[in-house]
Design a protein that fits this description.
Elements lengths: L9 E5 L3 H12 L3 E6 L7 H6 L3 E4 L4 H5 L3 E4 L8 H8 L4 E3 H6 L5 E6 L4 H14 L4 E5 L17 E5 L2 H4 L9 E4 L13 H9 L10 E5 L3 H6 L6 E5 L7 E6 L2 E6 L3 E6 L8 H16 L4 H9 L9 E6 L2 E5 L6 H8 L6 E6 L11 H7 L3 E4 L3 H8 L5 E3 L3 H12 L4 E4 L12 H17 L2
Parallel strand pairs: 1-2, 1-4, 2-3, 4-5, 6-8, 6-9, 7-8, 9-10, 10-11, 16-20, 17-18, 17-20, 18-19
Antiparallel strand pairs: 12-13, 13-14, 15-16
C-alpha cells in the first residue's frame, strides 16, 4: 500500500491549540499548503506557525477556505458536527482529526487507551512500564504530547501509547491500534455528544480497524465496557478487580497478578502501589494487563509503579493541616469519576462539587455521600443543580469562589476529615480547564496551611 501523501495538497487545520499546531507543522513538513483557522483573534503559536509557512486565518472561520481545501484536519476541541464542517463535507472535502492524521505516518505499533475515566493514569503507567522494560516509547494523544509530534521519531520498533478521547476517536477513519483498551464506560460529554449512543459510537471506533492479529483489553467489571467490545475482531484480554476471571489480570494474595484457572503469576505487589483509591488500583491492573501483552516483565512493572505517585489533579494528596487532608481530584469532571473518588474515603468527607454541568445523574451520588460526607460545598453554574440532586441526603452549602469553598470545606471537615475537590462537572464556567481549577484549589489550600 502506498504511503499517505499530502504533498502539494491544500489542507485546512481547524483549531490553534496543542493538537492543531502540531498537525499544521507536520503537514507543512510533509509538503502540504496549510491554512490554520481559529475563532480566537490571537493564538500563542502564531509567530511559530507563520515562520513555518502556515497561513493563519484568526478571529473567524471562512467557509470558502474549507470548501476549497483538499483535506480538513480538526483539533479535538472542534465539534465534529460544526455547521461549517458539514458544509465542507457536503462538497466532498474529507475531514479527519489530528490523531487520525498522525497515525497514518507512524511506523511503530499503537497502544490506544480509552474510557470515561482513568485514561490518563493508565496511559502514563503503561508508558512508564514500557520505558522500564527498555522499549522506545512515545506517550501522548489526549495527554501530554500531541501524536503528530511523535511521527518524526517513529521507527518500526517504536511503541506509541496514546490516550484517546471520544472527541478524537469520532474523527478517525483508518486508526488501527495493535492493543486497544476500554477501561470503562458511563455517560459523559453530553454537552457535546447528542446522546449516550453517539458517545458510545465514538468510543467504539477504537476497535473499528482491529483484526485477529490485534488485542482488545477489556474491564470485566464494567458491563458497559464489555458491551462496547462485542464488535471487536481482535483477541480479548481481560482485567478486573471484582469479577472472577478464567484468564486475565486481577488482584489476588496481595499482588496484581496474571491468573488462569490453574495458576497465578504475581506481577506487582500491592505494597508497591502509591495511589489513593480502589479505582486507581484498577488503573494499575489495567496498565499491567496492557504492558504484559507488550512483553513487559513483572520486574519492570514494579519499577514503574514504585516510582509513580499519581498525576497532578487526579486524587492528588495536596496537604494535611490540623488533622484535615486536602485531596485534589479536579480531573473528576463527570458523575462516575466523582463517585469513585468519594468512595475512596470513609466518614468525615467534605467534597467540593460543581462547575459547568455536562450530563449524567447527580442523584447517583446520594448514597455514597450519605454514608461518608459531613457536607458538600457547591460552586459554579451547577451549584443549584447539585443542591437539588442531593437534597435530603447530605447538607449542601454554597460558595461563590474557590477561596470561599476551600475555607468553608476546611471548617466543615475539621478536626479529622478530608476536603476533596471532586467537581463532577467541567470547569469552564470559572476556569480555563480542569488543570487551572486544580491549581487554584491547591493555592487556596496553601494559603490556609501557611496562615499563622
Amino acid at each position: 500500500m502506498s504511503e499517505f501523501s499530502v504533498r502539494g495538497m491544500r489542507v485546512a487545520v481547524i483549531g490553534g491549540g496543542r493538537s492543531g499546531v502540531a498537525a499544521a507543522l507536520l503537514l507543512r513538513d510533509r509538503g502540504a499548503i496549510v491554512t490554520l483557522t481559529d475563532v480566537r483573534a490571537d493564538i500563542p503559536d502564531a509567530a511559530r506557525l507563520h515562520g513555518a509557512g502556515v497561513t493563519l486565518e484568526l478571529g473567524y472561520h471562512d467557509s470558502r477556505t474549507l470548501r476549497a481545501a483538499d483535506l480538513i484536519v480538526t483539533s479535538p476541541g472542534v465539534p465534529w458536527h460544526l455547521p461549517i464542517l458539514e458544509d465542507a463535507r457536503a462538497t466532498g472535502v474529507p475531514v479527519i482529526g489530528e490523531i487520525e492524521l498522525a497515525s497514518r505516518w507512524l511506523r511503530g505499533r499503537i497502544i490506544a487507551i480509552t474510557g470515561t475515566k482513568g485514561k490518563s493514569t493508565t496511559t502514563t503507567l503503561v508508558g512508564r512500564m514500557l520505558q522500564a522494560a527498555g522499549m522506545g516509547v512515545g506517550v501522548g494523544g489526549n495527554i501530554g504530547t500531541a501524536l503528530a509530534l511523535q511521527v518524526a521519531a517513529s521507527t518500526p520498533e517504536s511503541m506509541h501509547v496514546v490516550e484517546v478521547s471520544s472527541f478524537q476517536l469520532e474523527a478517525t477513519d483508518t486508526f488501527h491500534p495493535w492493543i486497544a483498551a476500554i477501561l470503562n464506560f458511563s455517560p459523559d460529554h453530553l454537552d457535546r455528544h447528542a446522546s449516550v449512543d453517539e458517545y458510545a459510537a465514538a468510543k467504539r471506533r477504537i476497535l473499528a480497524n482491529q483484526d485477529a492479529g490485534d488485542w482488545t483489553v477489556v474491564n470485566a467489571d464494567d458491563p458497559a465496557a464489555v458491551s462496547l467490545a462485542e464488535i471487536s475482531r481482535a483477541r480479548r484480554a481481560w482485567f478486573g478487580l471484582e469479577t472472577h476471571l478464567e484468564e486475565g489480570v486481577t488482584v489476588a494474595e496481595d499482588a496484581v497478578c496474571y491468573a488462569t484457572s490453574s495458576s497465578r503469576l504475581p506481577l506487582v505487589p500491592l505494597m508497591a502501589v502509591r495511589l489513593i483509591g480502589r479505582h486507581l488500583l484498577a488503573d494499575v491492573v489495567a496498565a499491567a494487563a496492557i504492558a504484559r501483552l507488550a512483553g513487559v516483565t513483572g520486574d519492570a512493572m514494579v519499577r514503574a509503579v514504585e516510582g509513580f505517585h499519581g498525576l497532578e489533579h487526579a486524587m492528588e494528596l495536596v496537604a494535611e493541616h490540623r488533622g484535615v487532608r486536602f485531596v485534589n481530584d479536579s480531573k473528576a469532571t463527570n458523575v462516575e469519576s466523582a463517585r469513585r473518588a468519594i468512595e475512596s474515603f470513609e466518614r468525615g468527607l467534605v467534597p467540593i462539587m460543581g462547575g459547568r454541568f455536562k450530563g449524567g445523574n447527580l442523584r447517583e451520588l446520594r448514597g455514597p455521600l450519605r454514608e461518608r460526607a459531613r457536607a458538600v460545598v457547591a460552586i459554579g453554574e451547577a451549584r443549584e443543580r447539585v443542591r437539588e440532586a442531593l437534597l435530603g441526603a447530605v447538607d449542601v452549602r454554597e460558595a461563590d469562589s474557590m477561596r470561599e469553598a476551600v475555607e468553608r470545606a476546611f471548617e466543615l471537615a475539621s478536626p479529622d476529615g478530608t476536603v476533596l475537590l471532586a467537581p463532577a462537572c467541567a470547569s469552564f464556567d470559572m476556569f480555563t480547564d480542569y488543570a487551572e481549577r486544580g491549581r487554584v484549589f491547591k493555592q487556596e489550600v496553601g494559603r490556609i496551611v501557611s496562615a499563622p
